[in-house]
Design brief:
Layout (H helix, E strand, L loop, with lengths): L1 E6 L2 H17 L3 E3 L11 H13 L3 E6 L17 H10 L9 E6 L4 H4 E2 L7 E2 L5 H4 L25 E5 H6 L1 H13 L11
Parallel strand pairs: 1-2, 1-3, 3-4, 4-7
Antiparallel strand pairs: 5-6
Helix pairs in contact: 2-3
Amino acid sequence: MSNVFISFRHSDGRQYKEHLSKLFDLNRDTIDFSEDVDRSNMSDDTIRLHLYKKLRRSSVTIVLLTPLAVNHKKNRRGEYDDWMYDEIRYSLEDREGNRTNGLVAVYTPEAANLLVKFQPSRPVIVNNVDNLFRRNMMNVKPEYKKNPNPGTFDRDYDSYCSLIEWNEFINYIGKHIEIASKKRDEIYKYVINKRL
């Protein structure tokens, strides 16, 4: 049984989040503990405590990457002011009553060109984006690297956060959540970046 939390941008990700929630409702092996309410009118501390409770009950965080969610938002001082950033950060924290969650980033068709470059007969290139999920890719410790080729990484196991295309994820949800759960249990194999 896996308990998931979906981090998404309300402005352009709600329909994708709702679709995932319906799929999880049909799957008895997965329980969705995601946030359904826009709490932007509450204080940061209130939201943080609420999210801690939700995340404590989950084991895998799914980062839903729509075009507006690819890069984190910043305030005028250049500081991160983005609840998706905080949800990912809180998911990666190891605190009393909560272990670090497994992490899967799922990108929608509209966000594909912002994240990846496909080249015929060559590995996919992942763009550098200003998002905490990206800092947790290709972060396996050298002694645990599954793909032996320098500069080439196994998508499933050489990154703590796997980057998966939307259609593939919804067709193989159980597989991707299981892989994220396994990496959570073997977190010692990765250099986890908890902040940008």
